[in-house]
Amino acid sequence: MLPDVIETLFRSVSGSDAFAIRFPDNSQPPPELASVVSFPRIEFVIEGEVRDRSVLAEKGLLREGDAIYIPGGKWNLTVWQRPAILLSILFSKEKLGFSLQFWDGEKFTGTDKQSVPRLGPRVGSFLLQTMNEIVSNPDDQQTARCVVAGLLSHCQEQLANRAQILSRSGALFEVIKKYIEENASLPLTRENVAKRFHITPNYLSHLFRKSGNIGFSEYLNHVRLERAKLLLKGYELKIKEVATSCGFVDSNYFCRVFRKSTARSPSQYRSQWLSQLPERKS
């Protein structure tokens, strides 16, 4: 949803002079409940209208498509009256923060928040410097709209970068999973698997948590235990041989992990499986 909202705003700001870019008048101290952060922000009215107490009274009503730019360290205070949707973009040094707020006229009905790292050229920083200069000349709306359109384009690029990173991460996760499944009998560790794919052990752990919602060791044990079940059911191997064939160096540890997963020892699992088979005719 967020990329679509940014795209719509970009087209609107780029193609029309009807939308206003407002700036706060912080000549008075911030009132109670005012929002003050150390980084610059832009707030866009996506639907409906809101009033901002930081803007001079005759310009304080923000309608659909309008925006307010708040420099770092300055305050603003949104007054919610009629139903409205507001997008806030925070430009910190290392990331962009996005927040969509939904107001039904009486209460907030939802909030959609996410953040993305700021990567690549420092285009966004130069545009923010320009916006800070426009603050002293707020009537230059044409320049303000051009710069805001540039900032929205910067946000689009950062969101696209994030999508590409997530796509690559997902593909890498699947490749590593396949490698583990095919090599589970080897003495795999977080360190040697990470080295195999030219990433750090910490990133490998992050990848499994993020893409698979499971820990690396947990997944490795899962693969090994599934293989152990097949060997217990299909081959007359000793428990120690099953453990070794599945990559467990310590057969006692294998038995503990197996019991924790199945609530049975390997021997009990095999016996129960065999008891369910039809009797062979001699």
Give the beta-strand count: 10
> How far is the N terminus from the C terminus?
67 Å
- Rg, alpha carbons: 29 Å
Which regions contain 5 or more consecutive residues with pLDDT less than 50? none
Main sheet makeup: 8 strands, mixed
Form type: elongated
Describe the structure.
The protein is α+β, with helices and mostly antiparallel strands. It has helices spanning 2-15, 123-134, 141-183, 190-196, 201-212, 216-234, 239-245, 251-262, 266-276, and strands at 21-22, 35-36, 41-52, 61-63, 67-70, 75-76, 78-79, 84-91, 95-103, 108-117. Strands 1, 3, 4, 5, 7, 8, 9 and 10 form an eight-stranded mixed β-sheet that branches. It has a two-stranded antiparallel sheet with strand order 2-6. Strand 8 (84-91) and strand 9 form a beta hairpin. Helix 1 runs antiparallel to helix 3 (141-183). The radius of gyration is 29 Å and the shape is elongated. The mean pLDDT is 89.
Compact description:
This protein is an alpha+beta fold and 282 residues long. 49% of the residues lie in helices and 19% in strands.
